[in-house]
Known about the structure:
By secondary structure, the protein is mostly helical. The chain is 72% helix and 0% strand.
Amino acid sequence: xxxxxxxxxxxxxxxxxxxxxxxxxxxxxxxxxxxxxxxxxxxxxxxxxxxxxxxxxxxxxxxxxxxxxxxxxxxxxxxxxxxxxxxxxxxxxxxxxxxxxxxxxxxxxxxxxxxxxxxxxxxxxxxxxxxxxxxxxxxxxxxxxxxxxxxxxxxxxxxxxxxxxxxxxxxxxxxxxxxxxxxxxxxxxxxxxxxxxxxxxxxxxxxxxxxxxxx
Length: 215
């Protein structure tokens, strides 16, 4: 079945919401961590030094988690096209499952990236210093989770969504082709910049997404 106009607008809003939330989260959470990655452990406490920094990390964690959920919604809407509700295609099922895996892993990454800041913030309320030893481990773990397993889950979902879009015509052929490129690029997302292709592709797919009257 084709996407209805209502489903197109819903998918578009979810896709654009993902893009905005994901970019905000990357900017807020990863900017400092990338710079600190190869630094000595002694340099990390300054990363959580001020209340403003800790608040920024908490907001970034919420944004990253919400971005993962928005991506799931986007994938669900797009895969409704040409899908039999009783027997969804392999591509549709796979895109949904890997989108859900991506959302779960971004939630895990957000937790790791914000745990130290939240621990210190809550500790100040009750007179406890919060996490002090090993502060350098959790943010780096969050970065690795986001740029390796989460990125690979997103890559698989994008690849399958591109196949669904190519088969159903919910967007022009060039969107599917660039989807394959963006998916492959996630194999090296540990270097951060390839990860930005994910929101760029979702942005393009959302903008040109079309209903039955547009084909």
